[in-house]
Structure formats: C-alpha cells, structure tokens
Amino acid sequence: MAKITLSKLRHSYYPDPSSPEDYALKEIDLDWSDGGAYALLGPSGCGKSTLLNIISGLLTPSEGRILFDGEDVTGLPPNQRNIAQVFQFPVIYDTMSVFDNLAFPLRNRGVDEARVKARVTEIAEMLEVTDMLGTRAAHLSPDNKQKISMGRGLVRDDVNVVMFDEPLTVIDPHLKWKLRSKLKELHQKVRATMIYVTHDQTEALTFADQVVVMQEGEIVQIGTPVELFERPAHTFVGHFIGSPGMNVLPADIRNGAAYFEGHKLAVEGRIKLGDGLTQIGVRPEFVGLGDEGLPARVRKVADVGRHRVVDAVVGDTLVKAVSSGDVPGQGEDVHLAFAPEHTRVYRDGWLATERTSQ
Fold this sequence. Notes:
- The structure is a single chain.
- This protein is α+β, with helices and mostly antiparallel strands.
- The chain folds into two domains: 4-230, P-loop containing nucleotide triphosphate hydrolases (Rossmann fold, 3-Layer(aba) Sandwich), CATH 3.40.50.300; 243-351, CATH 2.40.50.140.
- The chain is 23% helix and 32% strand.
- The protein is built from eight helices and 22 strands.
- The strands form five sheets. The protein has a six-stranded mixed beta sheet, with helices on both faces. Strands 16-20-17-18-19 form a five-stranded antiparallel beta sheet, with no helix packed on it. It has a four-stranded antiparallel beta sheet with strand order 2-1-4-5, with helices on one face.
- Strand 12 and strand 13 (257-260) form a beta hairpin.
- The radius of gyration is 24 Å and the shape is globular.
- The relative contact order is 0.12.
- Its EC number is 3.6.3.20.
- Residues 4-241 form the ABC transporter domain.
C-alpha cells in the first residue's frame, strides 16, 4: 500500500501540444493517502482512464511526476510499480479452477505453496466463493467471474494500489448492488489503497470515502459524497451528481445581491466580486413548495416512488423541486422557496459565494 502523489501532471496525445485544448489531462496535483478508498468520477472522455493508465505505468505523462510514498515512479514500467488492476471485463483463466485463478498472481511471484493456500483461502472467504474453489472458472456466472477477478487483485499483500476500471459495467443491474457492497466490505477488511474509476455516480458515492470529479481533463472537485451533494464547487458537479441534478438558473448581481427573474434571493453568504457569467445553483431537494416565495406555475409532476419531482416555471425559467408530500397538479399556481443556506451564486461555473461563518 502506498500514498500516491500526482505532481503537476499533464498529458497530451499530440506530439507537439500548443494550447490547453490539446491536452487530455490539464495540470493535476493530487494526493491519495495510504489505505484510502477513492473514486474517479466523470463522463466518458473526461480523462479518467488516461489518468488511471498513467498511474499504472501503461502511459507516460507528457509532463509531471507520479510518486508512490515519495518515490518517483514516473519512468518505471507497470511490473515494477506493484499495482493490481481490475478491468471492465473479468480477466480470468477459464480452463483453471477458481483456486488456481486466485493463486496465479502469487505462484507467478514464487510464493511458497503453504502461503498461497492460506492467502487464497482467506480471500475466498471474504468473497464468499469458498464452495467454488474447485470449480472451473468457465462455469461461473458473470458476477462470480468478476468476483474472482477482484480476488486476483486483492490476493497479493504487497500491492501499492488496487485500481478498478469500470468493473461493474457488464454486470446485471440487480447484481451490481451486491458487488458494490462486497467491494466496500473488502476495502474495510484489507485496507488497501483503492482507486475506482466510473461514470456512475451511485457506484462512486457508495464505494469511495473521497470522490474526484473530473470534467474535460480537469479535476473540478474532490470531496466526500456529502460534500459533493450539499456544496458543489462547480455547476458541473451539481448537474452530474444527484437525480435530478442541481437547478442552474440565470442570475443578475446588483449591489452585492442576487436576483433571479426579477426576484431578490437570499444566498448562503457573501458574493465574491468578479466578472463572468453568473448563475444561481440550488438543488431540487432544497426547493420548497408553499404559500410564500417565488410565484410559479406547475408544468409537470413525476412520481418516482419515494418522492415526486415537480417541474415549475418561474417567468420563463424551469425550476425543479423534490417533495415527499402532496403536490399541486399540472397547471396550478404555486410558490417556490429556496433554502438560503443551500442557494449559491456561481460565476463561469465556479462557486462564487462564501459561507456566512467565514
């Protein structure tokens, strides 16, 4: 296990990049603590896999350094980095038994057979596959094949980091929650540094202690699942995390106050000075329906089981609200109340309000 440091990291697939747009990864400075559970979250093409390949040694960055526990490994090949990687599709040997699949990484490194047996037995118990150890891997279901693939990554106790690249993409939806829970349980037991790459917010937020959100080659926010939900540092985070995503509304700033559709809004704190496109961000969960607030008209109501999502129009702008109680019907007039402590100003996408306590 190791602390992983990315220092001034940039990467371009062009031989002679000349502008920021030529870089698949913009400058990244990042520390991952030893033994932590982390997720790289973002849409396809945002740079997640590029970053993972750089950490693993499959790709050499255009600029910057990768350090494991302070040691520069930027020039080292993958086999000298002590990394285990679990891919989207299970990497196992169908002709081998489950036991031999789990034992292979250890035997390949000359570990004595007594240690191999003890370690395989330990991992099999964690994965709940002890009764399958004698079964040929070809006969396993897809979710159990991925379990064995995970086990091959965890069976070595000398790895610096275990990396998961979209490991649940090909798993049936009703089995994903089982494997997510199992992976979280495994991390708590083995305490290895784990990095989980995904475009699925549910996978990232249920697995990781810290989530790194990426967009267009940049890290836009690092935080706990609660921090990302309750105080997005960028409108992209607010939009990408949450269902429905954060309301991002046009705003005017006058005399230090925020206005939306002509209505003055109370926000979480002081609005930072600056130029650029200003917007209001407030999650639907923090928009209340009642007799006071911004006048609106209901356009649509969606019943999603545990709550209802109300689409209401203020002036010419659509605002979403989440309610677990009774809601007005389509076409009815309503008032929307934004919770001030969760209502923020964003400028050119970035958070532009400071908490009152600051």
